[in-house]
Amino acid sequence: MKLLRSSAIALVLAGTAASLPARAADPELTVFDWAGFEEPAIWQGYVDKHGDAPTFALYGDDDEAFQKLASGFKADIAHPCSQMVSKYRDSGLIEPWDVSKIPAFETIAPQFLDSEVFRDDQGVWYIPADWGATAVAYNTETVPAEDIASLNIFIDPKYQGRTSLPDSADDVWALAYLATGVTDWTKVTDEQFQAAADWLRQAHQNVAAYWADPAQQSQLMASGAVDVAWSWNDGVVLLQAEGYPVGFQRAPKEGSSTFFCGFINLKDGPGNEEKVYDFVNAWLAPGAAKGLLDTIGYGHTSTVAMDTIKDEQAVKDGLSPVDAPILAQTPNDPGQRERQLAEFEKIKAGF
Fold it and tell me: What's the Cα-to-Cα distance from 143 to each of 37, 147, 235, 252, rounded to whole Å?
């Protein structure tokens, strides 16, 4: 098996992203971020201004990142997905942004700020930055088209020991809700929760491994250990860039999921607050969209930035609208989310 060249793939050789130490650079800015987002092409404007990259500490799971910050880890800025923001607010770990220092804030598409969790009379708590899809990655040489027409491929006995799911409660519940006919997770009944949990228990029987970050998922598929994975865009982009026969099915009959992530301003950060804003402004610059798409496969929340990449094939393949149901991973009830997290841990343990 050839090793993938991407730095994100290489992370898995040293262990999961959540366990990686900080990548030291500019000591005046510490960015707590997902593995893979340390690529300068996404925030080149910061390097252009300061001559160095920020110091990065990397993680692979939103809940683990929260626990680390809640336990006292110090950083200046973090990059959670939208459903985590209420948890950070409730814990008192973040403070509002001064959007007068973020000129491109006004270019963020309105749908990404359509929640009082993100913006209320106390201020703007969240700067949405990137978005993507969670769908079915599959080996095009071993998985026939008819099998990926339904999410039930994940419970098909033919694929026992040949699938991989993310070690992320949000993503696996998005999958399970879709598979059982739910497309809005903000209005889930007890019966719908139980049906999704039952489906996940079936899916667990086929799982060879739960991937902790896209690097691990990509290695599992590149090695031939699994044929099918519930995947973000980046795992597919990494594999396709290396010539592996991997497709991305975003339109099974039950649908697929979308998510978006962004930046929170951590209270009492140890670094330079002005550099925090410089980093966000570099991220929101129009030119950042191309770097984001090429390295991660994600879309940009700025309409101006997205306009610069709208004709790219990667946008058409991985981000364009599909004729299938969509479950949007928007903020949901914190109590329901904790219930899902606890149930997922039971399922992974075989209960």
Answer: 30, 7, 17, 14
32 in helix, strand or coil? strand
Query: Please, what is the angle between helix 334-348 and helix 169-179, to 10°?
Result: 90
Question: Which regions of the chain does DSSP assign to beta strands (E)?
Answer: 26-34, 54-59, 77-78, 94-95, 119-120, 123-124, 127-139, 163-166, 207-211, 228-232, 246-249, 256-266, 299-300, 326-328
- pLDDT tens for 132-141 read 999 999 999 9
Q: Which two tokens stand for residue 219?
A: 């290695």
Q: How far from 241 is each of 171, 202, 213, 218, 320, CA to CA, in Å?
A: 24, 33, 17, 11, 19
The per-residue pLDDT for range 246-279, each reduced to its tens digit, is: 999 999 999 999 999 999 999 999 999 999 999 9
Residue matched to tokens 């402004």: 281
How many angstroms separate the CA atoms of 135 and 249, rounded? 6
* Cβ proximity of 38 and 56 under 8 Å: yes
**Burial (0-12, 13-18, 19+ Cβ within 10 Å), 225:** middle
84 and 112 part of one domain: yes
DSSP 227-269: SEEEEEHHHHHHHHHTT--EEEE---TT-EEEEEEEEEEETT-
Q: What's the domain range around 295? A: 27-131+259-319
Tokens 């790219």: give the residue.
312
pTM, to two decimals: 0.90
Q: Is residue 43 in a domain? A: yes
- CATH code of residue 146: 3.40.190.10
Q: Where does residue 267 rank: exposed (0-12), middle (13-18), buried (19+ CB within 10 A)?
A: exposed
Same-domain pairing of 246 and 204: yes
Closest among 85, 82, 79 to 34, alpha carbons compared: 79
CB-based contacts of 274, cutoff 8 Å, min separation 6: none
As a whole number of angstroms, the distance between CA 172 and CA 106 comes to: 33
